[in-house]
Amino acid sequence: MTATRPRLHALGEAALLCELPPPATLAAQQKWWALAEQAAQWPGVLELLPGMNNLTLCFDPRHVTRQALEDKVREAWPALAPKTAAAGRLVEIPTAYGGDDGPDLDDVARHTGLSPREVVRRHSEADYVVYFLGFLPGFAFMGGLPAELATPRRAEPRVAVPARSVGIGGEQTGIYPLQSPGGWQLIGRTRLELFDPKAEPPTLLRPGDRVRFVAESVVA
Amino acid sequence: MIEILKPGPLASVQDAGRHGQRQLGICPGGALDTLALAVANRLVGNDDGAAGLELTLGGCAIHFHAATRIALTGDAFGASLDGRPLTCGWSVPVEAGQVLRLTGQASGMRPGLRTWLALAGGIDVPVLLGSRSTDLKAGFGGHQGRALRKGDRLALGPSRLTEAQRKRRPFGVRLPDDVPASDGATVLRVMAGPESAQFSAATRRQFHGAAWRITPQSNRMGSRLAGPEIKRLRGAGDMLSAGVIPGTVQVPPSGQPIILMGDAQTTGGYPRIAVLIRADLWKLAQAPLGGLLRLEEVDGDTALAAWEEQRRYLCALAPGLALAGWPVAPAHGDPTNGN
Description:
The complex is a heterodimer. By secondary structure, chain A is an alpha+beta fold. Helix content of chain A is 20%, strand content 33%. Chain A has a seven-stranded mixed sheet with strand order 7-6-13-5-12-9-10. A four-stranded antiparallel sheet of chain A has the order 1-2-4-3, covered by helices on one side. In chain A, strands 8-11 form a two-stranded antiparallel ribbon. In chain A, helix 3 (105-112) packs across helix 4 (116-125). Chain A starts with 6 loop residues before the first strand and ends with a strand. In chain A, 49% of the residues are buried. Chain B contains five helices and 21 strands. Chain B has helices at residues 34-43, 163-167, 201-209, 281-286, 300-323, and strands at residues 2-6, 10-14, 52-56, 60-64, 68-74, 80-81, 84-85, 90-94, 99-102, 114-119, 153-154, 171-172, 186-192, 212-214, 222-226, 242-243, 248-250, 258-260, 267-268, 272-276, 292-297. Chain B has a seven-stranded mixed β-barrel. A six-stranded antiparallel sheet of chain B has the order 7-6-9-4-1-11, with no helix packed on it. Chain B is globular, with a radius of gyration of 20 Å. Classes of the chains: A alpha+beta, B alpha+beta. At the A-B interface, strand 2, strand 3 and strand 4 of A face strand 16, strand 19, strand 20 and helix 5 of B.
């Protein structure tokens, strides 16, 4: 992994995408955390957007050119020490699986060739790590989904996914903090609030947290 | 204090946006046309990023409980103050008791979509996570975290205009130009996106050659386009979530592109075929539903030059405003920065 150099590509004239080829691993993500920490100090860098196995640098082109940033990323990458998250907490997510709470559980079962109950068992027995927050306020992207549960996103995104839905999108699993459009396969729902703009910090989950889903009920 | 008598289809409090919170998944939001907001704010002596109202498709009425000074930008939608027509790009005194109405009738030769209203002193709502903007999707910020309704009352902050300046007779500035294509389409310039290589050269030609229709499902999160089906090359796998910014053009499996706007998610999982240059974001914010778009590919140098041109337009407003004795916004930051 360390031998692989990130691919760099412009995201418009004021952002630079840095990414590694799949698979996403925790070790690789820890290098992205380290790069984000370092790049935050670079002049002209405004904001850092970690993704799954990638990092986007938003910058002010009047203060730094994309070429200069690309050079800095290439120079910094080989020397980066993976940044281990500060003592990750264990956060349990009580989840109601299937039925109205998880209308796509049967589709995921069909795609994976497992029974709905088996999908739930494997989803709730796995250990997950929060890789980054994105997409929606407080939405945690987590590593650790058992490979056999991977299911492609829906061909046509839903206009309104209910708040606190638990879903699978490709090789990832996550929880929608708010009602929003979304393309993930919905397998369940929790009662925990994941985002409160007046709280400090405003999000329930943070990068580095360990997460477990606890099956409170299963409709299958 | 102002009172919403009629909000129209969608009215919300917006400033220059909630920046620096993306790592928590919080979108920048803010006025979708920050250039229009900045111009309107300058016309009433505010900082470029002061909070104003973003109105959609007119159809609204606002009662002024106290004297102030206002400016409209975007599409005026038949705006009038106590029955006297108002033009976009004009700075106008308002007395207590007057009512601003927008009929909803597009005013120009080309219809618009949104109007920005700036008021001397700006809208005074609490700053939440660094901004006064309403995050409609997450339900916080602005006025009670929601779109404005009939009867809502909003306080104004301290104005920088003297009473003599506030009462000055109306004056106007030139608004930025937008030259449409011969078929009336709005022309937007885009750079190749990180996943553009997942589309064949023929598909990319089709993408850039098409006249895209903006569907009515479009909103502050994104403009959904209808046109030829844009398919990825076979074998391109499901991609991992990565950062997206306003202007990112995503292609979901349906093959109908979505151009993300200020309220869009901070990361996305659909291939990004292109990204709008920052200097053209405002054109998308004003492009009407049902209207046509063309997406013309340019390189990074063109994007930077277009941005500088937009900066020059804003800078060119300053001497005129200073001549009128107007407080000119300090040249800090980048009010129209899409980031």
